[in-house]
Write a structure and sequence with these properties.
By secondary structure, this protein is α+β, with helices and mostly antiparallel strands. The protein is built from six helices and four strands; from the N terminus they run αααβαββαβα. It has a four-stranded antiparallel sheet, with helices on one face. A hairpin with a 2-residue loop joins strand 2 and strand 3 (about 125-135). Helix 1 (about 5-30) packs antiparallel against helix 2 and helix 1 (about 5-30) packs parallel to helix 3 (about 60-85). The longest helix is centred in the first third of the chain and has 26 residues, at about 5-30. Belongs to the UPF0316 family. One of its GO terms (cellular component) is plasma membrane.
């Protein structure tokens, strides 16, 4: 058993899959310059790693280590993307209407969030509905702020694909240029 070869196979596939995961996320978020550059490094590493395993199929441990590098690479790639927190999120917070006196929309705006306020009717009466745009890196602090002011808030978030208009447009355009 060649430990050095097993470590090399693991590191090569781990690197490939980490880059693959990051490149995929960059592509989905519209980073048109950096995603192709990452893909060049990714495919070079992939060919190297795959050839190492295919040339040594007589040892099943090589394939197992290759698969382990794959699994760990995905996990680390996701953690890196979470750390980078690329893009924006749109959060809908539905609050009991009795929270109007909290002035949560103004508090959120004072913290730099884009907020659109409307009212709706729920099963138990009127509701205040807040549509909040935020960079993903501020996602957790936004949830914390909402929950501090109104723990009964119902919160849903998603990632918008296209943003146009509003006071956020200039910030978003700067990122894309």
């Amino acid at each position: 058993m060649d430990i050095k070869m097993l470590i090399t196979i693991f590191v090569v596939n781990f690197s490939y899959i980490t880059l693959n995961t990051i490149r995929f996320m960059l592509t989905m978020k519209g980073y048109r310059l950096i995603a192709p550059l990452v893909s060049m490094a990714e495919i070079t590493i992939y060919v190297l790693g795959l050839s190492m395993v295919l040339n040594r199929l007589d040892n099943p441990l090589n394939l197992i280590v290759y698969a382990l590098g794959y699994a760990v690479g995905i996990s680390v790639g996701i953690k890196i993307e979470d750390y980078l927190a690329l893009g924006y999120i749109m959060v809908t917070a539905i609050l009991p209407s009795s929270t109007e006196q909290l002035n949560l929309p103004e508090i959120l705006r004072d913290h730099g969030y884009g907020v659109t306020q409307s009212f709706g009717a729920g099963r138990e009466g009127e509701r205040m509905i807040l549509e909040i745009l935020s960079p993903r890196k501020n996602e957790r602090s936004l949830y914390k702020l909402i929950n501090e002011k109104e723990p009964r808030a119902f919160i849903i978030s998603y990632e918008p694909k296209f943003i146009s208009g509003g006071f956020w447009t200039k910030k978003v355009r700067k990122r894309n240029n």
